[in-house]
Amino acid sequence: xLKPYIENINKIKSEISSIGEEISHAxxxxxxxxxxxxxxxxxxxxxxxxxxxxxxxxxxxLIVKTLALYSPEAKDLREMVSFLKITNELIRxxxxxxxxxxxxxxxxSEDLNSEAILEYAIPLLKSSNLALxxxxxxxxxxxxxxxxxxxxxxxxxxxxxxxxxxxxxxxILKLITKKIELSKDYxxxxxxxxxxxxxxxxxxxxxNLLVFAEVGGDLENV
Length: 222
Hints:
This protein is an all-alpha fold. The protein has helices at about 5-35, 50-70, 75-105, 115-140, 145-180, 185-215.
C-alpha cells in the first residue's frame, strides 16, 4: 500500500480516537461528580459540540479525499465507510454526555432520594463509559483477535447499561409513588440517565462498524 495512503489512515484513526478520548474524559468527570456526590463538578464538563463537529467534518473530508485519491480495495473501502459513520456516532455520544451533565445537575435537588438514585446511576455511568472507551480502543487496533475480544467487551457493557437503567428506572418509579409532588424532578433525572444508556448504544454501533471493517458483513445491520 502507498505510504501517503497509510499516513492518511493513521491520521484518520488518531483523530477519531482523539474525539473519543475527549468524550470519555468528560464522562470521567461526571463519574467523579456522582461518586463524590458533588454535582457542582458537572460544571467542569465543557464539551464543545461545535468544535467536535468541526473536527469530525475535517476527518470526513480527509476520508473522502483518501477515497478519491487511492481507490482502496474491499477491506480498506469497508474501513473508510465505517470511519465515515463512526464520526457521526461520536458526535451523538458527545451530545448525550453533555446533555447528561447539564440536565442531571439541574434536575437533582436535596429533596430527592440521592442514595436510591446513585446506587445504580454510578455503575450505569461507569459501564456506559467503559463501553465507549473500549470501542475507541478498537479504532487503533489491527489484531483481529483483539478486536473481537474488545467487541465482545463492548457488548457486555452495553447489556449492563440496559440492565442498570432498568433498575434505576424501577427505583425512581417507586420513589415517585411515595412523593408524587417530586415526580417532575424524578422524571427529569430519569431522562438524563437515559442519555447514559444511549452513549453505550453508540459505543456498540461503533464496535459493530469496526468489526464490519475488519471482516465484512451486512452494513444495514450495523
